[in-house]
Amino acid sequence: MTKALVLGGGGVTGIAWELGVLCGLLRSGVPVADADVVIGTSAGSVVGTLVASGGDLEAAVALEEQIPAERAPRTSGGDGSMSRAITALAVLADPAVPAQQSRIRVGEFALAATTTAEDAYVARIASLLPGRSWPTGRDLRITAVDTADGRDVVFGASSGVPVELAVAASCAVPGLMPPITIDGRRYMDGGVRLGAGADLAAGAEHLVVIAPMAALDRDRILAEMTSTGAAHAVLIEPDEASLEAFGPNFMSQSRRGPSARAGLHQGRSLAEAVRAVWLP
Question: pLDDT tens-digit profile of 197-248?
């Protein structure tokens, strides 16, 4: 009975909230972190790597709650601004532009943007991870998108790509972070593929999808979930209190603590519904 955990994108507030949800579920006796397959996109790639590595969720949440905003590890790109990310989202959301063409346009935008140095950005991402090796015993899949042709890419332990590069690529928000160079190609945020990556969990019997930005693409995410054929599935999306905790800027360091606490509360409140899906 394959269990798949899918973690969507959502900036630093999304990381904090996902950690909170997972920890809240764990405290309630629903160990979704024991998934056989973990699929991470953008923020979800950071959390997914921690989960698949058997990391300490309690410690991770405590860090989100307690570290002052000015001391929180940076993940945004140097002089980038939220307006750049919004520009990319607007291109992807334009129904008049074919999906693949919109991805190529966003790729061009990402390559042209002035952000932080690629090496420095990768080093910051690496500092968020539990180690420099792919987890063993779990099937961790990390999404990214090729800037040149808009092609989906899924990195895993067998890809030969260092895990810190895979996560950095998955988190490389166009306009905020630099595309990541892997084998001569440049890759950007897995969120550019839209949805949450649940379609990559095809064949799973038990499916939990945690998507901080579900409100922007709920129909696509639900379609992804249906396509897996999972007999038992649930989508966890932010409730009103969590959305308030996020605030308007998903890269706001000052909102990490409130987002983690909102996630803890929501995880506990959803425990019984998730238990019915996750546990035989």
Answer: 999 999 999 999 999 999 989 999 999 999 999 999 999 999 999 999 999 8
Mean pLDDT over residues 46-61, rounded? 96
Q: What share of the chain is helix, strand, coil (3-state, %, to 5)?
A: 50, 15, 35
Report whether 207 contacts 215 (CB < 8 A): no
Structure tokens at 158: 């067998």
Mean pLDDT, the chain, rounded, equals 91
Residue 249: how many CB atoms within 10 A of its CB? 15
For residue 63, pLDDT over 60 is answered with: yes
Identify the burial level of 98 via C-beta atoms within 10 angstroms of its C-beta, where 0-12 means exposed, 13-18 middle and 19 or more buried: exposed
Q: Among 119, 118, 149, 128, which residue's Cα sits nearest to residue 45?
A: 128
Question: Is residue 21 within 8 Å of 265, Cβ to Cβ?
Answer: no
What's this model's pTM, rounded to 2 decimal places? 0.93
Dihedral pair phi/psi, residue 234, rounded to 5°: -150, 140
**Structure tokens of 196?**
């949450």
Q: Which of 118, 154, 158 is nearest to 134 (CA)?
A: 158
Q: Provide the sign of the torsion angle of the four alpha carbons 203, 204, 210, 214, taken in this order.
A: positive
Q: Are 156 and 139 in contact (CB under 8 A)?
A: yes
* Of 267, 254, 229, residue with least CA distance to 65: 254
Give me 91's structure tokens.
């291109």
